[in-house]
Amino acid sequence: MIKVILKKGREESLLRFHPWVFSGAIAQIQGKPAEGDIVAVHAADGSYLAAGHYQIGSIAVRILSFDSDPQAPDFWVKAISSALNLRLATGLYSEDGNTSCFRLIHGEGDGLPGLIIDWYDGVCVLQAHSVGMFRSKNRICEALKEVFGDRLKAVYDKSSGTAPFKAGLELIDGYIYKKEGFDANECVVSENGRKFIVNWVEGQKTGFFLDQRDNRALVGKYAAGKKVLNLFCYTGGFSIYALTAGAECVDSVDSSAKAISLVDKNVELNGVASRHTSICTDAIEYLGKVEEGKYDLMIVDPPAFAKHRGALRNALRAYQRLNAAAIAKVKPGGLVFTFSCSQVVDKIMFANAVFSAAAQTGRSVRIIDRLCQGCDHPVSIYHPEGEYLKGLLLYVE
User: Fold this and answer.
1) By the 8 A CB rule, do 315 and 329 touch?
2) pLDDT tens digits, 1-36
3) CATH 2.30.130.10 domain range(s) in the chain
């Protein structure tokens, strides 16, 4: 195995089990690794630290193991089984449960940096964010077949939009495995008893935003009897929870006609169409035209405004403007669920942006809950950067 030797004193983060080795920490590389190769990382004194995927960029090695060989025949089966045990412990994976979709592998949170796998009623949708994971996809598929047996219907690789495009990989989405007789690109899944159509071929990400499951349920807790606005609604997850919980009415707004079409199908699927209106337009423009006090409850869940640190300042301004508009328009005594999924915007930055937004409106605003991603998107205690989704539930007088 090729050796990566660190500079003196730069092993501290690995001794604390952080899963990244930055290029600036490397003193020398003994050998010529190709991108995606497994390399052994050693301290300056020669002591072994960990092994992981080598890659070109500021993060030079993504650690797969601190104590075992990632090339061992049973590595992937053990890693996937470990992740599944968490989902079993939280009750997400069961044959008779009322939830049939969840995230199975969440990158660093499950000890597998660069890998995402979502489970949709027996279909695993895989996204590789690194060359090493992309090159490992067939071994991962075989391990999935061994772990799940007959319950596995298919494995679909959807890495074309996530794997490094400059690495010379053949990034064509498609099935790695199909069980005999399986022939579908979408299915109906259940989440806490609600039904959703998921299309892993044409949908965003892997087909559904699983990280908001617990926050959708919280919206349901507060929605009964209320007039609800769901901005950036995508396929209508928050809308379905609000409607099935007894909301008086729900308006779902998104600029994507394809997303709005799926909202309408999901509303029909759950039998709540009579109290729902779909609006295909820019969410920010719509909010600007809304009359004050029309809505008792608003959900503000925009796409990531900042995907890298260079966009941070503009993103914080955008979050401030958007939240100021929502706080200004919600009915007195109303609620605003507001979120950021930008990893470079930490929860303190986001809270400060919302604070500035509230101050701008002059209204009395109180935080009644702090929100985050679901338990199937775990955060390694050694990798706090994994806590990417943050939200606030605001009470506005």
Assistant:
1) no
2) 999 999 999 999 999 999 999 999 999 999 999 999
3) 2-65
Residue with tokens 């009623």: 121
Domain 75-189 belongs in CATH node 3.30.750.80? yes
Q: Is 301 helix (H, G, I), strand (E, B) or coil?
A: coil
Q: Is pTM beyond 0.85 here? A: yes
Classify 209-396 by CATH class.
Answer: alpha beta
The stretch 323-349 carries a mean pLDDT of 96
Contact 329, 295 (CB under 8 A): yes
Burial class (CB in 10 A: 0-12, 13-18, 19+), 165: exposed
Give the span between the Cα atoms of 365 and 25, in whole angstroms: 45
Q: Where are the alpha helices (DSSP H) in 187-300?
A: 213-223, 237-244, 257-269, 283-289
C-beta of residue 63 within 8 angstroms of C-beta of residue 50: yes
33/107 Cα distance (integer angstroms): 22
